[in-house]
Amino acid sequence: MLKNILQKVADIESNEVRATASSFLFVFILMAAYYILRPVRDAMASDWSDSEVSQLWTLNFFISTGIVALYGFVVSRVKFSRLVPSIYTFFAASFILFYLSISLFSDRTFIDKSFYVWLSVFSMFHLSVFWSYMSDLFNREQAKRLFAIIAAGASAGALMGPLIPTLFAGMVGTDGLTLVAALMLIIPIPIIIYLAKLKVTDLHNEDVKADLSAIKIGGNPFAGFKSFVTDPYLLAIGAFILLYTMIGSFVYFEQKNLLAEFDRATRTQILGGIDWIINVLTFGVAFLATGRIVKKMGMSFTLASIPVLICAGILILAFAPIITVLLALQVTRRAGNYAVTKPAREMLFTEVDKETRFKAKPVIDVVVYRGGDTITAWLFTGLTEGLGLGFATVGIIGGGIAALWAGVGIFMGKLYDKK
């Protein structure tokens, strides 16, 4: 029945059905598990001060940079078909260990902070490794036909995952949710082994190998610094993404502080609900509107539209610091970024050659992005804990950063159109 349905709605051959369905299930489970863990992690932050969260973000910056380099080193020396199941086994075991550690330590602050950083590391790899494995499984012609079907599994998982903490955090608690997600991450391991078999028996792609040149070039994130600092176009992209991360960090810290009055289970339910709404809006807007916006309104409008909305939202929040306004701002910011700003900014990289893109993108994605998080975290901490500024004043500063972000978006769009 599954074969008949798939062949009616998609361009798929009978020998590809099992591999496609298994890949769909694989990424569905990955995304669902991640979106169970994400609100659990973010609910923890409201228990800590701004300076404590800033310390964790700084630690995450250095760990992320180091692991990207380590991954680039390992992937060039280990057979990829063995590396992928090892990576997911390692992450599944790590989250089970976090759950078991809760009962072993009376003071769980260290465990919670370690989990907070570690999930950020996991978020860097779970989808990247999956799609690298897909390119090792399907040939180029199959990828053109089948990857959209498989990607729908990621969207479905992103919609299903947040519902679990939203509905059940009050009953099973955040610790129970951690165990559920950890056990879910074990399921892809036999699927990976099964897919390796189907690669030979069904797909007959024994000679297909993933092109991991981008990962190897990105193994040393500092290799692309020369390309980055000497190209005005890449510097403009870097400035746009730096301001993007700064606004995200500002709103995150305001969210953390406003949610502090709720218990952790309630925070998890609220954040899970936000994730679900954002994923629904992202899917709808990206599917129906983003391409039309770029085509009809131009790149400058596309890049600047969300920053303008965020600027207005932050200024409203500054003078009306209530949870409803914050949730509306978060939904607008994240759904707009995922559905409009992120696809548009990825289009910017199509105007540079492959070598430059591979060398400079790790600098922008790791050093600029994570570094922007770290800098903004300490800036926010300095404004609140150092200077003692109130919510309204900090909000006005955030609105100014969003306005600058919009200006850079307009400038970046004009550069793109010239190219």
Quick recap of the structure?
This protein is mainly α and 419 residues long.
Give the secondary structure arrangement, pairings included.
Blueprint: H1 2-9, H2 17-44, H3 50-75, H4 80-102, H5 109-137, H6 140-160, H7 163-184, H8 188-201, H9 213-217, H10 225-230, H11 232-258, H12 264-288, H13 290-297, H14 299-319, H15 323-348, H16 354-386, H17 391-418
The amount of helix comes to over 70%
Instruction: Please give the number of β-strands.
Output: 0
CATH topology of the largest domain: Growth Hormone, Chain: A
Structural class: mainly alpha
What is the CATH class designation of the largest domain?
Answer: Mainly Alpha
Low-confidence stretches: none
Count of individual domains? 2
Count of DSSP-assigned helices: 17
What is the terminal separation in angstroms? 49 Å
| Biggest sheet character | none
C-alpha-based Rg, rounded: 22 Å
Under CATH, the homologous superfamily of the largest domain reads MFS general substrate transporter like domains
CATH level-two architecture of the largest domain = Up-down Bundle
Can you walk me through this structure?
The protein is globular and about 65 Å long. It folds into 2 domains: 1-219, Up-down Bundle (Growth Hormone, Chain: A); 220-419, Growth Hormone, Chain: A, CATH 1.20.1250.20. It has helices spanning 2-9, 17-44, 50-75, 80-102, 109-137, 140-160, 163-184, 188-201, 213-217, 225-230, 232-258, 264-288, 290-297, 299-319, 323-348, 354-386, 391-418. It has 419 residues and is an all-alpha fold. The N and C termini lie far apart (49 Å). The protein has 17 helices and no strands.
